[in-house]
Amino acid sequence: MLALPHRLVGHVPVFEGDGDAAVAVCLEAIEQGHGAWVVTANLDYLARARKDPSLRSLLQQASIVVADGAPVAWLARIAGARHTTRLAGVDLVAHLFERSRRPLRAVLYGSTPPVAEAAAARLQAAYPNAHVVGIVCPPFAERTPEQEASEQALLGELAPDVVLVALGCPKQEHLIARYREACPRALWIGVGGTFDFYAGRRRRAPRFVQRVGGEWLVRLAQEPRRLWRRYLLDDIPALLATAPACMAARFRERSTSPATE
User: Fold this and answer.
1) Is residue 215 part of a domain?
2) What is the 3-state secondary structure of 23-69?
3) Number of independent structural domains in the chain
4) Which of 8, 44, 76, 239 stands 20 to 30 A from 118 (CA)?
5) Cα(first)–Cα(last) distance of the chain, in Å?
6) Taking the mean position of all CA atoms in its chain, how far away is CA 257?
7) What is the pLDDT of residues 226-256, one digit of tens each?
8) In the 8-state DSSP scheme, what is residue 135?
Protein backbone atom coordinates (compact mmCIF):
# COMPACT_ATOMS: atom_id res chain seq x y z
CA MET A 1 0.00 0.00 0.00
CA LEU A 2 2.08 2.95 1.26
CA ALA A 3 0.30 5.47 -0.97
CA LEU A 4 1.61 8.28 1.23
CA PRO A 5 5.18 9.60 0.69
CA HIS A 6 7.75 7.54 2.56
CA ARG A 7 11.54 7.60 2.65
CA LEU A 8 13.49 4.35 2.83
CA VAL A 9 15.62 4.06 5.98
CA GLY A 10 17.57 0.86 5.63
CA HIS A 11 14.80 -1.59 4.80
CA VAL A 12 12.08 0.42 6.58
CA PRO A 13 9.91 2.99 4.76
CA VAL A 14 9.32 6.05 6.98
CA PHE A 15 6.57 8.63 6.51
CA GLU A 16 7.94 11.93 5.24
CA GLY A 17 5.48 14.12 7.13
CA ASP A 18 5.62 15.37 10.69
CA GLY A 19 3.66 14.09 13.66
CA ASP A 20 0.70 16.41 13.09
CA ALA A 21 0.41 15.23 9.49
CA ALA A 22 0.48 11.59 10.60
CA VAL A 23 -2.25 12.15 13.18
CA ALA A 24 -4.36 13.94 10.56
CA VAL A 25 -3.99 10.94 8.22
CA CYS A 26 -5.15 8.61 10.98
CA LEU A 27 -8.15 10.74 11.93
CA GLU A 28 -9.16 11.05 8.28
CA ALA A 29 -9.04 7.26 7.91
CA ILE A 30 -11.35 6.93 10.91
CA GLU A 31 -13.77 9.64 9.79
CA GLN A 32 -14.02 8.32 6.24
CA GLY A 33 -14.23 4.72 7.40
CA HIS A 34 -11.78 3.39 4.84
CA GLY A 35 -9.50 1.89 7.47
CA ALA A 36 -5.73 2.08 7.75
CA TRP A 37 -2.75 0.25 9.21
CA VAL A 38 -0.19 2.21 11.20
CA VAL A 39 3.30 0.92 12.01
CA THR A 40 5.27 2.69 14.76
CA ALA A 41 8.87 1.96 13.81
CA ASN A 42 11.81 2.30 16.18
CA LEU A 43 15.40 1.07 15.86
CA ASP A 44 14.31 -2.47 16.60
CA TYR A 45 12.41 -2.44 13.31
CA LEU A 46 15.57 -1.44 11.44
CA ALA A 47 17.48 -4.28 13.07
CA ARG A 48 14.78 -6.88 12.42
CA ALA A 49 13.99 -5.76 8.87
CA ARG A 50 17.63 -6.26 7.89
CA LYS A 51 17.26 -10.00 8.57
CA ASP A 52 13.54 -10.66 8.07
CA PRO A 53 12.12 -10.49 4.52
CA SER A 54 8.61 -11.25 5.81
CA LEU A 55 8.71 -8.15 8.03
CA ARG A 56 9.90 -6.03 5.10
CA SER A 57 6.92 -7.27 3.10
CA LEU A 58 4.52 -6.40 5.92
CA LEU A 59 5.90 -2.89 6.19
CA GLN A 60 5.16 -2.35 2.52
CA GLN A 61 1.55 -3.41 3.13
CA ALA A 62 1.00 -0.79 5.85
CA SER A 63 -0.78 2.50 5.20
CA ILE A 64 1.74 4.63 7.09
CA VAL A 65 4.98 3.93 8.96
CA VAL A 66 5.79 6.62 11.51
CA ALA A 67 9.14 7.18 13.22
CA ASP A 68 8.50 6.01 16.76
CA GLY A 69 12.14 6.45 17.76
CA ALA A 70 14.14 9.68 17.51
CA PRO A 71 17.06 7.92 15.76
CA VAL A 72 14.67 6.69 13.05
CA ALA A 73 13.49 10.27 12.49
CA TRP A 74 17.11 11.47 12.34
CA LEU A 75 18.00 8.83 9.76
CA ALA A 76 14.95 9.70 7.67
CA ARG A 77 15.97 13.37 7.62
CA ILE A 78 19.55 12.43 6.77
CA ALA A 79 18.13 10.44 3.85
CA GLY A 80 16.25 13.54 2.66
CA ALA A 81 12.87 13.46 4.44
CA ARG A 82 12.98 17.05 5.63
CA HIS A 83 9.68 17.05 7.52
CA THR A 84 9.85 13.74 9.37
CA THR A 85 9.60 14.03 13.14
CA ARG A 86 9.30 11.47 15.87
CA LEU A 87 5.82 10.28 16.82
CA ALA A 88 5.93 7.74 19.64
CA GLY A 89 3.09 5.23 19.82
CA VAL A 90 2.14 6.55 23.26
CA ASP A 91 1.77 10.05 21.84
CA LEU A 92 -0.06 8.92 18.72
CA VAL A 93 -2.72 7.21 20.82
CA ALA A 94 -3.12 10.29 23.01
CA HIS A 95 -3.38 12.67 20.03
CA LEU A 96 -6.06 10.55 18.36
CA PHE A 97 -8.34 10.70 21.38
CA GLU A 98 -7.53 14.38 22.05
CA ARG A 99 -8.16 15.59 18.50
CA SER A 100 -11.06 13.41 17.42
CA ARG A 101 -14.30 15.28 16.98
CA ARG A 102 -16.32 12.38 18.36
CA PRO A 103 -15.93 9.47 20.80
CA LEU A 104 -13.85 6.64 19.38
CA ARG A 105 -14.65 3.00 19.99
CA ALA A 106 -11.37 1.31 20.87
CA VAL A 107 -10.26 -2.26 21.34
CA LEU A 108 -7.08 -3.08 23.24
CA TYR A 109 -5.48 -6.28 22.00
CA GLY A 110 -2.48 -7.89 23.70
CA SER A 111 -0.53 -7.78 26.96
CA THR A 112 -1.98 -9.30 30.14
CA PRO A 113 -5.43 -8.64 31.60
CA PRO A 114 -4.15 -6.54 34.56
CA VAL A 115 -2.02 -4.34 32.30
CA ALA A 116 -4.61 -3.97 29.54
CA GLU A 117 -7.42 -3.24 32.00
CA ALA A 118 -5.35 -0.63 33.82
CA ALA A 119 -4.39 0.97 30.50
CA ALA A 120 -8.04 1.06 29.43
CA ALA A 121 -9.08 2.70 32.69
CA ARG A 122 -6.33 5.30 32.40
CA LEU A 123 -7.16 6.10 28.78
CA GLN A 124 -10.84 6.56 29.51
CA ALA A 125 -10.13 8.71 32.56
CA ALA A 126 -7.68 10.91 30.66
CA TYR A 127 -9.53 11.27 27.35
CA PRO A 128 -13.31 11.74 27.16
CA ASN A 129 -13.31 10.52 23.55
CA ALA A 130 -11.71 7.19 24.49
CA HIS A 131 -14.47 4.57 24.69
CA VAL A 132 -12.90 1.15 25.24
CA VAL A 133 -15.44 -1.38 23.98
CA GLY A 134 -13.28 -4.48 24.29
CA ILE A 135 -10.08 -5.95 25.70
CA VAL A 136 -8.57 -9.09 24.19
CA CYS A 137 -5.57 -10.66 25.94
CA PRO A 138 -4.63 -13.78 23.98
CA PRO A 139 -2.59 -16.56 25.59
CA PHE A 140 1.12 -16.54 24.85
CA ALA A 141 0.86 -20.01 23.32
CA GLU A 142 0.25 -20.28 19.60
CA ARG A 143 -3.45 -20.18 18.80
CA THR A 144 -5.36 -22.56 16.58
CA PRO A 145 -7.15 -21.35 13.43
CA GLU A 146 -10.43 -21.86 15.29
CA GLN A 147 -9.30 -19.63 18.15
CA GLU A 148 -8.18 -16.91 15.75
CA ALA A 149 -11.46 -17.13 13.87
CA SER A 150 -13.32 -16.68 17.17
CA GLU A 151 -11.24 -13.60 18.02
CA GLN A 152 -11.85 -12.12 14.60
CA ALA A 153 -15.57 -12.68 14.92
CA LEU A 154 -15.54 -10.94 18.31
CA LEU A 155 -13.66 -7.97 16.88
CA GLY A 156 -16.17 -7.72 14.05
CA GLU A 157 -19.03 -7.65 16.57
CA LEU A 158 -17.35 -4.92 18.62
CA ALA A 159 -17.06 -2.72 15.51
CA PRO A 160 -14.18 -0.55 16.81
CA ASP A 161 -12.91 2.65 15.26
CA VAL A 162 -9.40 1.93 16.57
CA VAL A 163 -7.65 -1.36 17.35
CA LEU A 164 -4.47 -1.01 19.43
CA VAL A 165 -2.32 -4.14 19.11
CA ALA A 166 0.38 -4.54 21.75
CA LEU A 167 2.34 -7.66 20.87
CA GLY A 168 5.70 -6.20 19.91
CA CYS A 169 7.51 -6.41 16.58
CA PRO A 170 6.98 -8.46 14.41
CA LYS A 171 4.14 -10.37 16.10
CA GLN A 172 1.77 -7.42 16.01
CA GLU A 173 2.44 -6.79 12.33
CA HIS A 174 1.73 -10.42 11.43
CA LEU A 175 -1.47 -10.39 13.47
CA ILE A 176 -2.74 -7.15 11.96
CA ALA A 177 -2.11 -8.52 8.47
CA ARG A 178 -4.23 -11.59 9.32
CA TYR A 179 -6.97 -9.82 11.31
CA ARG A 180 -7.54 -6.55 9.45
CA GLU A 181 -10.38 -7.86 7.32
CA ALA A 182 -12.36 -8.55 10.51
CA CYS A 183 -12.66 -4.76 10.95
CA PRO A 184 -11.75 -3.23 7.58
CA ARG A 185 -13.07 0.22 8.52
CA ALA A 186 -10.95 0.47 11.67
CA LEU A 187 -7.59 2.11 12.24
CA TRP A 188 -5.15 -0.62 13.29
CA ILE A 189 -2.03 0.46 15.17
CA GLY A 190 0.83 -1.70 16.39
CA VAL A 191 1.68 -0.02 19.68
CA GLY A 192 4.33 -2.27 21.23
CA GLY A 193 4.72 -1.52 24.95
CA THR A 194 2.27 1.40 25.02
CA PHE A 195 -0.13 -0.36 27.41
CA ASP A 196 2.64 -0.59 30.02
CA PHE A 197 3.06 3.18 29.96
CA TYR A 198 -0.65 3.91 30.29
CA ALA A 199 -0.97 1.27 33.02
CA GLY A 200 1.81 3.00 34.98
CA ARG A 201 4.20 0.05 34.83
CA ARG A 202 6.80 2.07 32.95
CA ARG A 203 7.67 5.74 33.10
CA ARG A 204 8.58 7.89 30.16
CA ALA A 205 11.71 9.97 30.11
CA PRO A 206 11.43 13.71 30.80
CA ARG A 207 10.53 15.79 27.75
CA PHE A 208 14.01 17.24 27.34
CA VAL A 209 15.47 13.72 27.29
CA GLN A 210 12.92 12.71 24.65
CA ARG A 211 13.82 15.73 22.54
CA VAL A 212 17.51 14.80 22.41
CA GLY A 213 16.75 11.16 21.62
CA GLY A 214 17.76 9.74 25.00
CA GLU A 215 14.54 7.97 25.95
CA TRP A 216 16.08 4.60 25.12
CA LEU A 217 18.62 5.13 27.90
CA VAL A 218 15.82 5.58 30.43
CA ARG A 219 14.12 2.41 29.22
CA LEU A 220 17.41 0.53 29.40
CA ALA A 221 17.87 1.70 33.00
CA GLN A 222 14.33 0.54 33.84
CA GLU A 223 14.65 -2.90 32.21
CA PRO A 224 18.35 -3.71 31.79
CA ARG A 225 18.01 -7.49 31.76
CA ARG A 226 15.36 -7.49 29.06
CA LEU A 227 16.71 -4.71 26.85
CA TRP A 228 20.52 -4.63 27.05
CA ARG A 229 21.06 -7.30 24.44
CA ARG A 230 18.50 -5.85 22.05
CA TYR A 231 19.78 -2.29 22.35
CA LEU A 232 23.50 -2.93 22.43
CA LEU A 233 23.83 -5.95 20.15
CA ASP A 234 21.02 -5.34 17.65
CA ASP A 235 19.68 -1.78 17.59
CA ILE A 236 22.85 0.30 17.83
CA PRO A 237 24.66 -1.79 15.19
CA ALA A 238 21.61 -1.35 12.94
CA LEU A 239 21.82 2.41 13.43
CA LEU A 240 25.51 2.48 12.55
CA ALA A 241 24.98 0.23 9.53
CA THR A 242 22.04 2.25 8.19
CA ALA A 243 23.42 5.79 8.56
CA PRO A 244 25.96 5.63 5.68
CA ALA A 245 23.27 4.43 3.24
CA CYS A 246 21.00 7.28 4.32
CA MET A 247 23.79 9.81 3.77
CA ALA A 248 24.51 8.29 0.36
CA ALA A 249 20.84 8.54 -0.60
CA ARG A 250 20.80 12.20 0.36
CA PHE A 251 23.95 12.83 -1.68
CA ARG A 252 22.51 11.08 -4.74
CA GLU A 253 19.31 13.11 -4.46
CA ARG A 254 21.23 16.37 -4.29
CA SER A 255 23.51 15.44 -7.17
CA THR A 256 20.57 14.61 -9.44
CA SER A 257 18.40 17.61 -8.47
CA PRO A 258 18.24 20.44 -11.01
CA ALA A 259 20.49 23.33 -10.13
CA THR A 260 18.71 26.41 -8.84
CA GLU A 261 19.88 29.95 -8.97
Assistant:
1) yes
2) HHHHHHHHHHCCCEEEEEECHHHHHHHHHCHHHHHHHHHCCEEEECC
3) 1
4) 44
5) 37
6) 32
7) 766 777 778 888 889 999 989 988 777 777 6
8) E
Q: Which domain holds residue 249?
A: 6-256
Asked whether residue 232 is domain-assigned, the answer is yes
* Cβ–Cβ < 8 Å for 169, 44: yes
pLDDT at 1: 73
State pLDDT tens for residues 123-136. 999 999 999 999 99
227 within a domain of the structure (yes/no): yes
Banded model confidence at residue 142, pLDDT cuts 50, 70, 90: confident
CA distance 56 to 39: 12
226 assigned to some structural domain: yes
pTM: 0.90
Q: How far is CA 90 from CA 2, 38, 124, in A?
A: 22, 13, 14
The residues, ordered by sequence, that sit 6+ positions from 44 with a Cβ below 8 Å of its Cβ are: 169, 230, 234, 235
